Amino acid sequence: MIVVDDVHKHFGGFHAVDGASMTIQQGSITGLIGPNGAGKTTLFNVIAGVLQPTSGRVTMAGEDITGLPPHDLFHKGLLRTFQIAHEFSSMTCRENLMMVPGDQSGERLWNTWFGRKRIADEERALRAKADEVLEFLTIEHLADHKAGQVSGGQKKLLELGRTMMVDARIVFLDEVGAGVNRTLLNTIADAIVQLNKERNYTFVVIEHDMDFIGRICDPVICMAEGKVLAEGTLDDIKANEQVIEAYLGTGLKNKDMMGTQA
Predict the structure, then answer these.
(1) Whole-model pTM above 0.70?
(2) In the chain, where does the domain assigned CATH 3.40.50.300 lie?
(3) Do residues 21 and 43 lie in contact, with contact meaning Cβ atoms separated by under 8 Å?
(4) What architecture is the 1-77+167-262 domain classified under in CATH?
């Protein structure tokens, strides 16, 4: 579905992404792991159009999407979340979801004068859909709470909910578990798996929690120093000498440490 071909992203003399190539299969939940500074988030930003690549190519379903801006990719069904949730803090959780779909009738001045019924009908449909999403994510009790007042984990669930308000094809999740307690992390994992199985969402997940990665991701891709080191199951990755050295700077003698230090 997504093919990354020899992508480079340089910041002056620093090569944040240095010839990365990978394929994300449609219908998969792919984990992207690696030590801090490996280039994972920078690669996400290149794929999602936040950053222009220095060189290389990204295709989606055979279409060249290299360098397309995020709003164009949004309309193609490619969405991403961020390490720090980007909610509209003064709006309710329901309102945060309702504003996601683009090209709403209420956005046009003409319709505010002559298309009020259309606007009202759309808002009722959006409200119903938002409530369904909140219920799916088990946070329906937060519908009328200001988004800025809910917990970090609930904000991550809200970000995942935004992807459900449009026809997402592939979703890039950047450290979805950062600052999230174990109970909410399990809820997020359940939602990702359910969306994958029932709605055929494709996910790519950056995460440092190996239990989380092992539970939901196959395959797993490991990056270090801007390059792809290995791909396979999590067990394959953990047994890979290059991966172990990237994380620990040591050889196979410390292989059993990776599960706790990754």
Answers:
(1) yes
(2) 1-77+167-262
(3) no
(4) 3-Layer(aba) Sandwich (3.40)
